Hints:
- The structure holds two protein chains of two kinds.
- Chain A is of the alpha/beta class.
- Chain A contains nine helices and eleven strands.
- Chain A folds into two domains: about 200 residues, Rossmann fold (3-Layer(aba) Sandwich), CATH 3.40.50; about 70 residues, no CATH class.
- In chain A, about 35% of the residues lie in helices and about 20% in strands.
- Chain A has a six-stranded mixed sheet, with helices on both faces. In chain A, strands 2-1-4 form a three-stranded antiparallel sheet. In chain A, strands 6-7 form a two-stranded antiparallel ribbon.
- The longest helix of chain A is centred in the C-terminal third of the chain and has 23 residues.
- Chain B is mostly helical.
- Chain B has two domains: about 40 residues; about 220 residues, MetI-like (MetI-like fold, Orthogonal Bundle), CATH 1.10.3720.
- Chain B contains eleven helices and no strands.
Amino acid sequence: MAAASAGTPAPDAGSGNAARVLSGSGERGGTPIVRLSGVGKRFDSGTLALAALDLEVGRHEFVSLLGPSGCGKSTALRIIAGLSTPSTGAVEWLDPAHAESRTDIGFVFQEPTLMPWATVFDNVRLPLRLQSGRRNGERRSDAQVRDDVRAALAMVGLEGFERAYPRELSGGMKMRVSIARALVTRPRLLLMDEPFAALDEITRFKLNNDLLELWRREAWTVVFVTHSVYESVYLSSRIMVMAARPGRVVAEHRIDAPYPRDEDFRTSARYNEYCRIVSHSLAAAMDASERQ
Amino acid sequence: MSAPGSTNYGTAARDGSRPPATHVTPNSGPRLDPLARRNRALRIVLPIAIGILTIVAWDLIVRINNIPHYILPGPLLVAKSLVDNWGTLLPALMVTLQITFMALTVAVVGGVGLALLFAQSKWIEISLFPYAVVLQVTPIIAIAPLILIYVDNTHIALLICAWIVAFFPILSNTTLGLNSADHNLLNLFQLYGASRWQVLRYLRIPSALPYFLGGLRIAGGLSLIGAVVAEFTAGTAGKGSGLAYRILESGYRLNIPLMFAALLLITSTGIVIFLFFTAVSHFSLRKWHESAMKRES
């Protein structure tokens, strides 16, 4: 395993020291809410998707898992969500609210994954329906459920589309519905698996901005899987660079640019510098994978 | 709804595949340009023209060659025979239709019920599915005589024969549909702690609907065929009152025009059944499924 990056401008970044993960303390990322220690996953086929992964996510962090395909970033996300059980290691919920119920998690897939037979409203209502109208354990009346769904749709800018069917929407709008569905339960932890990968750049930039805005306003914690250096630098407060075969973290970068970030940040020298460093780190990770 | 002459009917199973996400191919849409309008008109006119031509050719061949009516009756004679014998043909049609629809109903209830059972347990599916296949691949014509021997009540024996034929497409299509729910959606249901019942009710059953309807369209035609085949077998044993029996009877009497008339009635019934289920399928799916959608321009 190679030392991954030459160093980041941020003084506290754990650059250079592969696989060593700093705990998520600092300005963003207060109390840790989930800790993965030595989490590994071997598929039935024998493939080692993820070797020992250590990761601690603090409250209100925006953590990106960045890496080439096959680096186990999606597997890590699915393990956090409880959709996949780790072969080794453990996932610890440090926040009692999370430990009690998984409903505190929202998950956004790479594809919109909407039910084509249901309207936008019914798609967004699904998580509440599956929990018998409960939100974080609290019983919601039908009127409240309606309000919750409308509020979630308003958050992603889709008011008035309640009765539309998914096929009537553009790719970007479908993704917004998918995000609204993840938000309707008011999760405190949002897990996103390359949610914007299939969208065109203009739509992606717009959704990036909207997501950051919501993240700031609603005080969520986000774990974001991506293979785009530029996207991860723009969004994240922390980036975990991962390598493949076997999947592992090889570098960690803190992006200390202040929020709110906007189009000015996207064109700033600082942004470019971060992108250069993270790209470098990713290239080293790719080299490391190839040498295996 | 597709134009009556359109050729996309028998593609139910393929239509059931998951639609591609967003992209639409430019084609005729609501605002028709002259070319598209002409195409649409041709879709109706061409098949009708071919039909008329065939009938005229048939008539001419019979007239010119002076073919005797006990070998090949002309279309007019067949029509006349249909009208003259309406009094005996209609009750016979009713008997056949009754068997067809009862068999189809039992096939739907049984097929869907068993498919739902399969969806609950892989092991039930693995244990029983081979026997459903055995039922399907055994030619009905070969086992109909046995069924008629074992079952005293002819009516019930006919019903069993028609059911055997109609049952499998419903079972296999519905099973396929129930198993083809989107995996990410299944993950999502799991994430929110959905119960088995919720997964079935909100995910598997809606996913299976297009597949089931495709199976229904096939089974509708097959139950008619099953009923007619069984009636033939029963008819040769001298028992029967359905349309197939009329065909047999007119064959014995060399009343070929009547034979053609009964045949025409069976074929028309099959077409009506097919169109009926096509319409049912279209109206159930028009809101969301690709098979029932016009392509956007």
